[in-house]
Amino acid sequence: MTPPTVWSDLEPLLPRVAKPVQYVGGELNARTKDWDAADVRWALMYPDAYEVGLPNQGIQILYEVLNERADALAERCYAVWPDLEALMRESGVPAFTVDAHRPLGAFDVLGVSFSTELGYTNLLTALDLAGIPLHAADRDESHPLVVAGGHAAFNPEPIARFVDVAAIGDGEEVVGDITDVVRDWKAEGRPGGRRELLLRLAATDGCYVPSLYAVSYGADGAIAAVTPADPRVPATVQKRTTVSLDDWPYPKTPLVPLAETVHERASVEIFRGCTRGCRFCQAGMITRPVRERSLQGIGEMVDASVRASGFDEVGLLSLSSADHTEIAEITKGLADRYEGTNTSLSLPSTRVDAFNIDLANEISRNGRRSGLTFAPEGGSERIRRVINKMVSEEDLIRTVSEAFGQGWRQVKLYFMCGLPTEEDADVLQIADMAHNVIRAGRAASGRNDVRCTVSIGGFVPKPHTPFQWAAQCHPDVVDDRLRQLRAAVNGDRKLGRNVGMRYHDGKPSLIEGLLARGDRRVGAVIERVWREGGRFDGWSEHFSYDRWVDAAAAELEPLGVSLLWFTTRERTREEVLPWDHLDSGLERDWLWDDWQDALAGREQDDCRWTPCFDCGVCPSTGTDIEVGPSGTTLIPLSVVGPGSRGAG
Ligand code: SF4
After folding, report:
1. Count of H helices and E strands in the chain?
2. CB burial of residue 79 (10 Å; 0-12, 13-18, 19+)
3. Which helix (H) or strand (E) is 552 found in, with range?
4. For residue 615, which atom of ligand 1 is closest to its CA?
5. What integer pLDDT is reported at residue 645 of this predicted model?
6. What count of Cα atoms within 13 Å lies in the side-chain half-sphere of residue 601?
7. What is the maximum span of the chain, computed from C-alpha positions, in angstroms?
8. Pairing mode, if any, of strands 72-78 and 145-149?
9. Which of 172, 191, 295, 624 is least crowded, fewest Cβ atoms below 10 Å from its Cβ?
């Protein structure tokens, strides 16, 4: 039976909250399917505000993939702000989807995509508002299956008590497999109840069911073993890998937001995975191997998504977009196609060493020369060898000089502070680099108004990276280094006045570190923080460091561990890590050797251009590096005439 919409109860509350339009749905390209015609109904949640969640590519891809199936439907939901949460509680309005405003509790599956661990408390708000028991163990057949995905799901142990399943790896295919399992189990009359459903899912590639594994701890507080609690459950769960991106050209029809969002553009993922080997980068490590979309595939997706959305910007996404083997053809082809229209291109992620001025000129042909962004990540050559980000200051200065000479006026540089082996001197060299950028910019442009903005984030060691064993730097040290850096930047007033600095204090990074490398015991901390009002922890105005510190002390210290035990402690090679039974494809021994290379300042090349160095991914996932040239072109596709928007 179709569940009643909550709209009539929700609507009177909306004039009393900020940005009510974010809760109404009905965006261009949104779908609302017939409830009764679907066998399996998914609610897809992005656990952050609409303005962050709506552009999320993962959710948009799964939303389309699921809605294209005749036997499934998918609706979206985002985290509600505390003002609406309070009114919903007062009025008894349950958590809802923005598409048809159906209660979350009525769906078969609640899929939650975690890009960052700081969204965990927002999942608890949604479960509670939906009337779904917080703990997976308390749910029965009447409750949705709670499935976590996204990069944070590669260590779901801190949220193990709240989720039924963690889907590890690429989502396009596993959502279909989960749908099949749920559909068949329902059609068979739900044999064996929820436990049988979980057992069937545990036998599905890429699906990890935490409740079917037992964790024991040793006297030192570390994990002794993680063992399957049922003989039918695999000892390790391997991630899913979508081999051919051309077979999955999603999203085809991007959602056009009703309210302001962080990105308002059509996005086309031009390749997935990265083998550059930056040792801090979890995304690069867990998405290997590199799989490029063909020129033809990219051309068709850009055309389709611009037509379907009317967006005037197309983002060519990946972890390092200029590394696509045919990036020059892609940018020239698209710039030719949209010449004279108001459709512009952007490459949101570009490395200094893959960047060249021709590429930048093509990208900006129909757009503005706003600013160039690079991420050297480390201030000194030494620390850049440690993190395997092989960008020389010389290359950077040469690149920015060329750019300033061609009319660019601003460069943004991203760095991290608190990296393994880092000392004050490594961070202080960021000031020299910024000063050198200004000097080079003034010389190349002949102007005094060039700008360099330095953005710095606190480093958080992440699972499935060589730094998974590293001690996280204490926030007091990070904050002190950043104070010294500010003084060094401003030490030369003539150069320093053209340098902007952006950084937050190191405290949220420590909590992110707890959630990233925590085990099941950290679940109690998350729950306590949430019960004490923790919401939107990724937002500085909502984040409370003290609330997390107090909750960690209350929940962890009686167990003989602590916030600092989980974060600032270096692990040994022998220690069982909470995510060791989840297989990202990377060999543990290779990761350890890469960690030792980091400590010795030894670099590792990119296997796209050098022989395979046996990280383990290709053999273990049955895949291979997939790079061009693809032998295809961007033609034939509709040629857009001057003055046209390019949108049908
Ligand atoms: S297995 Fe070899 S080729 Fe494949 S990603 Fe790892 S290093 Fe590169």
Report:
1. 22, 19
2. buried
3. helix 545-556
4. 6
5. 37
6. 8
7. 76
8. unpaired
9. 191
Question: How far is it, in rounded angstroms, from Cα 291 to Cα 241?
Answer: 10
pTM given for the model: 0.95
Instruction: Please report, for residues 420, 427, 480, 488, 531, the alpha-carbon distance to residue 484 in angstroms, rounded to integers and kept in the order given.
Output: 19, 9, 6, 6, 38
Structure tokens at 602: 């030894």
Q: Which of 79, 104, 71, 51 is nearest to 255 (CA)?
A: 51
Q: How many CB atoms within 10 Å of residue 524?
A: 17
The torsion of the CA quartet 355, 361, 364, 369, rounded to 10 degrees, works out to: 80
Identify the pLDDT of residue 226: 98
User: Concatenated DSSP letters for 462-499?
Assistant: -TTSGGGGSPPPPHHHHHHHHHHHHHHHHHSHHHHTTE
Instruction: Give the integer Cα–Cα distance in Å for 453 and 485.
Output: 13
Alpha helices in 30-91 (DSSP H): 50-53, 57-67, 82-91
**Do 501 and 484 touch, CB atoms closer than 8 A?**
no
Q: From the CA of 369, how far away is ligand 1's center (Å)? A: 37
Pocket test for ligand 1, best of 241, 275, 589, 590 (most atoms within 8 A of CB): 275
In ligand 1, the atom with minimum distance to the C-alpha of 613 is: 7
69 CA from centroid of ligand 1 (Å): 34
Please give the torsion angle defined by the CA atoms of residues 561, 565, 570 and 571, in that order, rounded to the nearest 10 degrees. Answer: 30
Encode pLDDT of 327-342 as tens digits: 999 999 999 999 889 8
Contact predicate 147/201, CB 8 Å: no
Measured in Å, how far apart are the chain's first and last C-alpha atoms? 38
Mutate to test the pocket of ligand 1, among 586, 607, 626 (most ligand atoms within 8 A of CB): 607
The pair of structure tokens assigned to 168 is: 């590890």
Beta carbons of 239 and 233 less than 8 angstroms apart? no
Rounded CA-CA distance 39/645 in Å is 40
DSSP character string of 258-280: SS--S--SEEEE-EE---S--TT
**Rounded distance, CA 34 to CA 448, Å?**
61
Do residues 233 and 199 make contact, with C-beta atoms less than 8 angstroms apart? Answer: yes
Q: Residue 601: count other Cβ atoms within 10 Å of its Cβ.
A: 14
Q: What atom of ligand 1 comes closest to residue 619's alpha carbon?
A: 1
> Could you say which DSSP state residue 205 is in?
T
Count Cβ atoms below 10 Å from residue 63 Cβ, excluding itself.
Answer: 26
pLDDT at 539: 95
Show the domains of the chain with their CATH numbers.
7-219 (3.40.50.280), 265-521+561-621 (3.80.30.20)
Q: How close is the Cα of 386 to the center of ligand 1, in Å? A: 20
Ligand 1 site residues, Cβ closer than 6 angstroms? 275, 288-289, 607, 612-618, 625
pLDDT number for residue 64: 98
State residue 396 phi and psi, 5-degree precision. Answer: -60, -45
Angle at 140 between CA 137 and CA 145, to 5 degrees: 80
Q: Are 107 and 43 in contact (CB under 8 A)?
A: yes
pLDDT at 643 over 80: no
For the chain, what is the mean pLDDT? 93
Residue 476: how many CB atoms within 10 A of its CB? Answer: 12
Asked if omega into 15 is within 30° of 0 (cis), the reply is no
Return d(Cα 561, Cα 587) in angstroms, integer: 28
Contact, 224 vs 576, CB < 8 A? Answer: yes
Residue 410 CA to residue 372 CA, distance in Å, equals: 6
Q: Whose CA is nearest to atom 3 of ligand 1?
A: 612
How many residues can be counted in the chain? 648
